[in-house]
Write a structure and sequence with these properties.
single chain, alpha/beta, seven-stranded mixed β-sheet, 9 helices, about 25% strand
Amino acid sequence: MKAIINATIVMRDYLIPDGVILIENDKIKSYGKAKNVAIPDGAEIIDAENNYVGPGLVDIHTHASDNMWIFEEPEKTSKYMLKHGVTSVLPALYNNLNKDAYLKAVDDILKARDDGKFKNFAGFYMEGPYLSPNFGCERDKNVWKDGVVREEYIDIVHRVKDTAKVWCFAPEREGIMNFVQDVKEVIPNIVFAVAHSEATPEQVERFIPYGLRIATHHTNATGTIEHYSECRGVCVDEAVNSNREIYAELISDRMGIHVVPYMQRLVRKIKGDDRIILISDQFVCDGPIPEGFEEATDIHFDNAGEIAGSGLTLDIACRNFMIHTGCSVCDAFRFASYNPARAVNLDKKGYIEEGNYADLIIVDDKFNVLKTIIKGE
């Protein structure tokens, strides 16, 4: 038995000061104000020193950590993310991988999981292969831009049938309906995401009945909204904002380059606090920093000067979002724990409740991670 004491417990929409959380094996046994929770004799004591104790962070979309690809260094990246409070992660696999590379990446990550070296693995985030060839970093490395061919993708679908949680696609790609139907048949509970897309709102909405409910890095790599020269049109972003079913992923970097702070506040206002998901979307890219972006130290650029994901960890994204939007610590945990866990159907994760996994982090008022506990350890 373990007991976290002197905790300000972060619930979904309120705080419990002077709190205690009891952990038995890998689950939360009980929690509440210290006067209401009896600590068993011999329990291991973890003193939170009046800092916040909230659910472990759930990063559903990141390719890398500490500037290393997850599929190349699953053990090292896992440990680095754990230090930053990420107790559940969905490694993202991108369309810069050909078929053989996709399959090898999946196998290597699953081997690390099976060997106990990737404790926070929670499933795959398949960012591709069929995205718009006109969007995203390193477009010259996209090997899937010519056509949607079943013989090329079906082996990948079957390889991740038990582990893929999210599958991204561009709704405007020719032949994409066949792809979506094949994925849905093999993985009935898959969550689809619109990503790197020039689709119209109608093209996006066509796939909501199939389970499209996430917008990959909302307002990034989305279609033009030009219509007439003096008239504003609509694109993927408006479809996401308009449809209640769709969660909006946001990358909140320090300077607000991916999503300017005003837009972060606007999207939050439109979507509501139960439809925002913070992600890190860390990528490995060492292109030169364009002139005028010298202070953008937590994002990456490719050799063409395009934004190439971030250098963020999810705890830093929480801190940035608190600064940019004025959200509370409860809100930050909702956006980085509860909402993502709920969006991708992770059971007993993302919030503090008796019987849930003891995935917990201790953070200070600036969201610095002081301790991470995963399944009670």
